[in-house]
Amino acid sequence: MKSSLISSIVLASQVFALPTTTSVRANTAVKYVPFCSLSTAGVNIAGFDFGVLTDGSQTVSDVYPPLSALGGPDGAGQMSHFVKDDNLNIFRLPVGWEYLTNYNIGTFDTTKLANYDQLVQACLSTGATCIIDIHNYARWYGGIIGQGGPSNASFVQLWTQLATKYKASTNIAFGVMNEPHDLDINIWASTVQMVVTAIRTAGATSQMILLPGTGYTSAGSFIDNGSGAALSKVKNLDGSTTNLIFDVHQYLDYDYSGTHTECVTDNISSAWQPLATWLRANKRQALNTETGGGNTASCEQYLCSAINFMNSNTDVFLGYVAWSAGSFDSTYELDLTPTLSGSTWTDTALMKACIAR
């Protein structure tokens, strides 16, 4: 998504999913099957990533933590509601690298890490899976990690610290990087391998690790741009690929950017079916950690259709994590933040129609 203005704060957390084809399915009504068998379904809880641009720079003062204790929205209450009332069981918690280190590419800033950890602990307390997502587009201020920008060693240091902190939490998942783009995929796969090795060596031996490809890790281009082939070479310490899951995104608006309230496609023929076929042939699985649309009839139709397709292919798709709740409000195009009146939470239209189970 492109930057939006929320509660007088400029939100520059951009998310793009750009498949290689632009085919659009007929506008046929689709009935959603609410009790799906996908193992995971959830939503992003954004706020600690606010201010991050696609060049990997972050204006840390734009961060709006989704924690009432830190002056933001009640992200803890949102997650509790989503679990209890909507049967969701996974949350992605995006955060900027600059925020965690306070602009120091080395060790963490103790206060800022503690702030982010409050969100992580609130997530863990629900019993859901909690994805730690570094939301930097494989960059630090324009430089690509391991490709002329920050060194692989710096990136490995970041993940070694995170894995060491959360290695005992079985419900933690590690999202290596949000939406890498415009890079050498084979070199990037080598960087990802270093991170996987570091996470496992730190003692996080069984948690899920999400492997993102280039092209904003779009489901529609994951095969054609070489991401699938390159990342298939990434292995655990024992040579296996257990719990190494491909991380894919896909939006449904006309340019696949996730910046418009109307949807035009479910991406089945252009993205999900080809990816499902490839995953099945290669005995691998993927998790869709960003998708969504506006609270409109067109997005209800097409997102429900896409989720139905994933529900019919649970051998290769673990589930979906929609974008986004947390610190967004109703002025944001892809808002999924529930509203609280007294003790009652009310979901957005798209959450009710497609995402809740």
From TrEMBL:
Q: Which UniProt keywords apply?
A: Carbohydrate metabolism, Cellulose degradation, Glycosidase, Hydrolase, Polysaccharide degradation, Pyrrolidone carboxylic acid, Signal
- Pfam families, sorted: Cellulase (PF00150)
Signal peptide span per the entry? 1-17
Q: What class of enzyme is it?
A: hydrolase
Family stated for the protein in its record: Belongs to the glycosyl hydrolase 5 (cellulase A) family.
Q: Which reaction is catalysed here?
A: Endohydrolysis of (1->4)-beta-D-glucosidic linkages in cellulose, lichenin and cereal beta-D-glucans
* Role description: Endoglucanase (EG) that cleaves the internal beta-1,4-glucosidic bonds in cellulose. The degradation of cellulose involves an interplay between different cellulolytic enzymes. Hydrolysis starts with EGs, which cut internal glycosidic linkages to reduce the polymerization degree of the substrate and creates new chain ends for exocellobiohydrolases (CBHs). The CBH release the disaccharide cellobiose from the non-reducing end of the cellulose polymer chain. Finally, beta-1,4-glucosidases hydrolyze the cellobiose and other short cello-oligosaccharides into glucose units.
- To which species is this protein native? Lachnellula hyalina
Q: Name one GO molecular function term.
A: cellulase activity
One biological process term from GO is: cellulose catabolic process
Question: Which PROSITE patterns does its entry note?
Answer: GLYCOSYL_HYDROL_F5
Domain called Glycoside hydrolase family: residue spans: 71-325
User: Mind telling me what this protein is named?
Assistant: Endoglucanase EG-II
Q: Which InterPro entries match?
A: GH (IPR017853), Glyco_hydro_5 (IPR001547), Glyco_hydro_5_CS (IPR018087)
Q: What is its EC number?
A: 3.2.1.4
